[in-house]
């Protein structure tokens, strides 16, 4: 992507989880391009180092930490780092797992627990733990990354789909609670974005053609299709938007 002329986030500090690849990396890159200091994270040290190296080589202000979002100590380190560099204005909760494919009622209990621990509980805890710092910001922002599957479940992603529906409700409830603090809470629901994570849906030509048949724009999304919307919500341009679940899916059906 070419350099971004807008600098709507100059002076802001952002934490983006699961941000060393795919959608998360694109979000971190875009926030930094718009002037934010960004703390990226991933479960693997090598991935963090490579992503930091890449973004710093582009002249962006980025730091990286290892963080497994299910671990309280790791989450604490993210917010301690943010506090060290000046506070926190933007939290983007992007981490998600899907250890098992299949219909929802065929999901094993272990996989169900892991999916909800990472996709839902960790998002809740990240938001809860970020609030003290966000209250000190002039315009705090929480942005959850859900999925089109949260609106319209995919057969192969049954339990994952339900976890992403839960984020839609978390967004609505948290937005009401935090509005008096001038903290907005919104959610992005990406469609099928061409990443490693979506490979289960696009693993062969027939599967990809089936997915494309559901997308009026007739193409898979790209990570930067999501990152621009996140930057908008994080900026002053999105200051009067809260409690919303925004679908970015090329026109795919999205109705609960």
Automatic annotation (TrEMBL):
It holds the Pfam family adh_short_C2. InterPro entries: NAD(P)-bd_dom_sf (IPR036291), Sc_DH/Rdtase_CS (IPR020904), SDR_fam (IPR002347). GO terms for molecular function: carbonyl reductase (NADPH) activity. The keyword Oxidoreductase applies. Keywords: Oxidoreductase. Belongs to the short-chain dehydrogenases/reductases (SDR) family. NCBIfam families: PRK07231.1, PRK12826.1-2. This is Dehydrogenase/reductase SDR family member 4. It comes from Rhamnusium bicolor.
């Amino acid at each position: 992507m070419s350099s971004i002329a807008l600098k709507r986030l100059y002076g802001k500090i952002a934490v983006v989880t699961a941000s060393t690849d795919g959608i998360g990396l694109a979000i971190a890159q875009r926030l930094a391009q718009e002037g934010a200091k960004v703390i990226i994270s991933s479960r693997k040290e090598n991935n963090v180092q490579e992503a930091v190296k890449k973004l710093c080589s582009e002249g962006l202000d980025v730091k990286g930490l290892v963080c497994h979002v299910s671990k309280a100590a790791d989450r604490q380190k993210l917010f301690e780092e943010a506090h060290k560099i000046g506070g926190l204005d933007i939290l983007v909760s992007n981490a998600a797992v899907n250890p098992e494919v299949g219909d929802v009622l065929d999901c094993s209990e272990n996989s169900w627990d892991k999916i909800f621990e990472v996709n839902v509980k960790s998002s809740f805890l990240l938001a809860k733990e970020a609030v003290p710092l966000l209250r000190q910001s002039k315009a705090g922002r929480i942005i959850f990354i859900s999925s089109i599957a949260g609106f319209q479940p995919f057969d192969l992603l049954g339990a994952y789909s339900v976890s992403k529906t839960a984020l839609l409700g978390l967004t609505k409830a948290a937005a009401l609670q935090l509005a008096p603090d001038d903290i907005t809470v919104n959610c992005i629901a990406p469609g099928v974005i061409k990443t490693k994570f979506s490979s289960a849906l696009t693993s062969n030509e027939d599967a990809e053609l089936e997915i494309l048949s559901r997308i009026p724009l007739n193409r898979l999304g790209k990570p930067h299709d999501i990152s621009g919307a996140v930057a908008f919500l994080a900026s002053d341009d999105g200051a009067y938007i809260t409690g919303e679940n925004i679908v970015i899916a090329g026109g795919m059906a999205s109705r609960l």
